[in-house]
Design goal:
Largest sheet: 2 strands, antiparallel
Strand order of the largest sheet: 1-2
Radius of gyration: 19 Å
Structural class: mainly alpha
Shape: elongated
Strand content: under 5%
Helix content: 55-70%
Order of helices and strands: EHHHHEHH
Length: 118
Amino acid sequence: MPNVEFDARSFYQALDTTRAARRMNWKQVAEKSGVSASTLTRIAQGKRPDVDSMAALVAWSGLSADEFVTGERQRPEALSQITTLLNADAGLNSEGREAMIGMVTAAYQRLTATLSKT
């Protein structure tokens, strides 16, 4: 497996830039993002955030977590990308979402199996 890491220092710098641009202090960031002030302090000290804090800070800031992953990465599989999009579609209820994912998965697997035989 390639050496892949999360660049916590760069993530913190990007958060700090976002905070400054929004003219907020760290206490306000904690309140708006739902992340504790102590977690923000740990990130400032170079520690990696836990998954829930990371998700909250990415949502608050509008940053993409992918931008802070260093090293060689694999390209996501097409079926995973389609499933991700269907899961994010607000126009589908959970039943419709599961039905669509099931249909797309079955069709994809059938077609890729057929193509690999030729």
